Amino acid sequence: MDDRGLRLAESVWTRLDRKAGAIVELTIRQLRHRLSTWVVLSVGALLMILLLSFYIDAVRESFEPIDNDGDSFDADKDGYPMGQERKYGTSDYNGDQYPGSSKFLLEGNIDLDDNGRFITGNYSWNGEALFEPVWVDVNYSGNNEFYWSEAVNWEEVGDCPEIDESDYNEQTWEFNWGSACLIGDMDNDGRDTYYVRGDWFGQGTATVLPDRSLAWGRVTEPIFIEPDPPELYIDEDGIDCFNSDGERTECPASDRLGGSHGFDDDGDCLFSNSEVAKDEGEAPRDDSNGNGIVCDVLWATDFDGNEVLGIDADNNVDEDPNDEEYAGELGHRTFIIGVGKIAFVLLLGLFLPLFLALGLVRDETENGTLHLLLSKPIHRGEFILYRLLGYLAVSGSYVLALSMIVGIIAAALGPGDQIFRFSDLPVWLGIGLATVFVLAAYGAIFNTMGLISPKYGVYGCIVFGVWEFAMGFFTILNPNWTVSSISVTHWALQMIDAVVLLSWPDTLQWAEMGSAYGINSALATFWQPPVHDLGTQSGFVALLVSSSMLLAISSIMIFIGQSVFGKREIM
Amino acid sequence: MSNNQTPAVLLDNTSKWYGQVIGLNDVSIAIDGGVTGILGPNGAGKSTLFKLLMGRIKPSQGSVRLFGIDPWESTSPYRRVGYVSESEKMYEWMTAHDFVTTLARLHGMTREQASESSAHVLDFVGLSDVMHKELGKFSKGMRQRVKIAHALVHDPDLIILDEPLHGCDPIARTSIMSVIRELGNKGKTVLVSSHILEEIERITEQIVILHNGRLLAIGNLHAIRDLLDKHPHRIVINCEDPRSLAKLFVSQEPVFGVRFPSKGRLEIQTNDLSAAHSILPSLIVKSNQKVTSIENPDDNLDSLLGYLIGGVQ
Predict the structure, then answer these.
(1) DSSP letter, residue B8
(2) A chain contacts of residue B89, beta-carbon cutoff 8 Å
C-alpha cells in the first residue's frame, strides 16, 4: 500500500475502529460491573443445568421396551402369545386353536344350492346332513376350526320327530348344533340313518338337504409346539429400509427415501392372510396401503424425492420397532430443538435484553455520565450502535458459550453407536446464532423504546415481551399462522427450523417415523420444516430469509433509535 | 490552532428558550485565544451557553459555531475541544488512568497512545501518584482534576470548563487555577465559568458577564473593575479595637466614612477601593493591632452586576 492509501486507512477506518473498540470495551466493562448482569446470566446458566439434569435423568433410565402392536399378549389364554399364534395362523381369540393344535384340512363341500347332494367316505364332517354311518367316533371332540361348530354328542341321540319323507326337502329337524337324532333305517339295508348337525367323524354316506351345507375333510394329529415367551414379541418387527440396490440399510434411508420399504420380520403380516382369516370374513391384510406390494411400507416423498411426506405401512409390517433405538433418537432431537426454541430463543432471548439492553443509553443519561461520551467526536448514532455491539459481545458470547457447553454435554450423553454426536454441534451452533440474532433484534428494540420514552419505555418493553412470548408459542405450534410472523421470535424459531433441516436433513423422516410407527415423541410438535423458503424447500434459503428478516428488524430499530436520539436535546 | 478567519467560539444573535423560559437571549460573541471567564449568577445562562457549544441543545434562534462548524449538526469540532462538565458523575469503579485512557480512545487513539497521553496529562494536573487508584476514593478536588485531565488528553485547542473550582478546597483551587493559567499561556482558548468574581479574577482578565440570559459585559475585567472601584465600597476589618483603628482611617483621603456594625468589626467606606487597599497594610501595621480578617463585601459579582445593571439602566 502506498503512503497515501495508508494514511487514508489510518485516518478513516482505523480511527472509527478504535472508537468502536473503546465504546464496546467500555460497555462490556460497565455490564461486568453491574450486579444485575451477573444475576441474569447465572439464572440462565441455572436454567440450563436444570434442563440438562432432566435430560440426564431421562437417558439414564433406559427406555422401557414397548409392545407397540400388542402381540405379546395372550388374548385367548391358550398359553401362546398372539404373535406366535399369528405366525402359525391359529386364532388369537379362540383358545382351542393354538400352534400345534389339530387342524381341519378341507377336502370338499356341498353348498346350499349345489347339485349332487350326497357323498360317501371316511371324513371329519362339518355341517348338517342325513348321515347313514358305517361307524362314527363317539369320542370325537370337534375340529377346532370353526368356532361356532360343536362336536356331536352321540351319547344322547333320540328319535327324530315324525316327518313325512316327501317333506324332507322343505322341512328339516330344527335342533341345536352338536346333536343328532335317529330317523331309522330309511333304505332298509340294515343301517340306521341319522339327522346330524355339527362336527362329527365317521364313515358313511351323507345326504345334504336343499338349503343346507356340509363340508368334509381330514383333521391332523395335534403336535406339541413350545410356547414362545411373550418378550419375544416385543420390539420384534423393526423399521426396515432398503437402498436403491435393494439391500437393507439403516432407517431413515439416505439413498432411496421414497417407494417400498419395510420387511415383515415376525411374519405376522404374511400369515394374517391365511384361509382362516378369509373364512372369518376379514379382508386380506397384506396390502392395506394398496401399492400392489404385499407386506411392505410405502414411503411417500415430495416431487423431488428429498422430503418424506408420509409413511404408510401394510398391517403388521415393521409394526413393533426397537423403542430404545428410535425413541432415544427422537427424544434426543426433541430435547435439543425444544431447549433451543423455548429455553434459548424464548427465555434467554427475551430476558437477557430486558435486563442488559434496556438501559444501554438510558442509564448513561440517568447516571449523568452521558456528557463524558457525547463531548467526544462521536456521532450519537454511532454511539448507540457501538453500545449495542458491546451489549451483544457480552450477551452473544454468553449465549454461544452456553449453547456449546449444553450441546457438548448432550452430544456426549446422547443415543447412538458413536461416542460423541458431532452432528449435533451444528444444530447447537445454529441455536446459539439464532439466539444472538434475537438478542440483537430485542437489544435494538428495547434500547430504542428506552430512548423514545425513558420513563414508560420499560412498560412498553414488557407488553412487547408478552406479545413475543405468545407469538413464539403459536409459531412452535403452527408456523403457518400469518399473524405470528409479526414478531421477532417467529423468525428466530424459523431460523432454528432451517438449521435443523440443514444439519439433520432426516429429521422430517424421523418425525414421520415417530407418528407412523407409534413411537412416543414430541418431535413433530417442536419441529416442522421451515415455512419461509420462498417455495424452494431449501433449508439454506429459509435460513437466509429468516436471518435477513431479523437483521432487517435490528437495523430498522437501530435506525429509529439513532434518529430519535440524534434529534433529542439533552439537558 | 484555529486560523484567523474562524474564531474558536462564535455565537451570532443566539437565543435559546425552553418553552416560556429564556435560557439565552440574543447573545453574540466571538472568543479566540487566551482564558475567558464566563461570569454570571446561577440561572444567568452559563449552562445554556455551554450546552449550545457542546451540541447538546439546538439554538432557537441565531447560530453557534465551533471553529466555524455547527456543533448541533456535526461532532467534528470536538476533536479540538475539551469539555469539563459541572457534573460530578464518573465511572467510580475505574482508576483515574483507566478513565482518562478510555475516554482518550474515543478520540481515535490506540490503546497505547491513549495510555501514554493520559499518564502525561494526569501528571500535568498533578495526579501522577494516585492515577492507579479508583475514582470512587478520590476527593472532590482530585475528581475535578481528573475531569480536567480527560478534557486535555487529546491536546485540544479549545477547553471549556464549567465551574471547575466549585466545591474544591483551597489547595485544589490553587492547583486548578494554575493549570488553567498555564493552558492560557500555551495559547489555548479556555472558557471558564464561575459565579464567583474573585476566582475568575485570579485566573484571567478577559471576561464575559451573563445575566438573565443576556450578555451584560464583555472585555477586560480590570477596565470593568476600575469603573466599579469608583463607586462606594465597603471594607470590613475584624480586629481587637475597631475604634482606635478607625481613627487612623478617617484622616485618609480615599476613606469617606467608618461604621462599627458589631463588636470587634470596623467598616470602612471608600470611593476608591484599590487606593484604600494600598494604604491598608501600612495603617494596620501602624495601629499595632491584631487583625483577624479583611473582607470586601462589595467586591463580588452581585455588586458588580448591581453596578453594571445600574449603569445600563
Answers:
(1) S
(2) 367-369
End-to-end, the C-alpha distance of chain A in Å comes to 46
Model confidence pLDDT, tens digit, residues B111-140: 999 999 999 999 999 899 999 999 999 998
Chain A residues near residue B76 by CB distance under 8 angstroms:
377
Contacts of A21 in chain B (CB under 8 A): 105
Interface membership of B83 toward A (CB under 8 Å): yes
Ordered by start, the domain boundaries in chain A are 12-60+327-566, 74-101, 104-218, 236-320
Task: Flag whether pLDDT at B67 surpasses 70.
Answer: yes
Residues of B in contact with A379 (CB under 8 A): 75
Which of A374, A376, A569 is opposite residue B107, by nearest beta carbon? A376
CA distance A352 to A358: 10
Under DSSP, the state recorded for A249 is E
Q: Which residue has the cell 443445568?
A: A49
Per CB-CB distance under 8 Å, the chain A contacts of B93 are 33
Task: Please name the residue that has the C-alpha cell 467500555.
Answer: A26
pLDDT one-digit tens code per residue, B263-282: 888 888 888 777 888 888 88
Instruction: In whole angstroms, give the CA distance from residue A132 to residue A193.
Output: 4
Q: What is the dihedral of CA A410, A413, A415, A416, to 10 degrees?
A: 110
Contact A522, A334 (CB under 8 A): yes
Residue B57 one-letter amino acid: I
Distances (CA, A) of A117 to A120, A126, A128, A131, A195: 11, 15, 12, 12, 15
How many residues are there in chain A?
A: 571
Place of cell 474562524: B6
The pLDDT mean for chain A works out to 84
Q: Is B57 on the interface with A (CB under 8 A)?
A: yes
pTM of the model: 0.76
pLDDT recorded at residue A149: 67
Is the per-residue pLDDT at A4 higher than 60?
no
Neighbours of A482 (CB within 10 A): 8
Cβ-Cβ contacts under 8 Å for A26 (sequence gap 6 or more) = A390, B102
Residues 87-146, chain B, touching A (beta carbon < 8 A): 87-91, 93, 102-103, 105-110
pLDDT value for A10: 60
- pLDDT score of B1: 43
For residue A311, the one-letter residue type is: I
- pLDDT at position A453: 86
Using N-to-C axis directions, what is the helix angle for A457-477 and A349-356, rounded to 10°?
170
Q: Which of B17, B60, B75 to mutate to test the interface with A (most CBs of A within 10 A)?
A: B75
The alpha-carbon gap from B83 to the nearest alpha carbon of chain A, in Å, equals: 7
Alpha helices in A313-415 (DSSP H): 323-338, 349-356, 362-367, 370-374, 380-413
B90–A369: do the CB atoms touch at under 8 Å? Answer: yes
pLDDT score for B70: 94
Q: Give the three cell numbers for residue A171.
A: 322341512
> Using the beta-carbon criterion (under 8 Å), do B89 and A18 form an inter-chain contact?
no
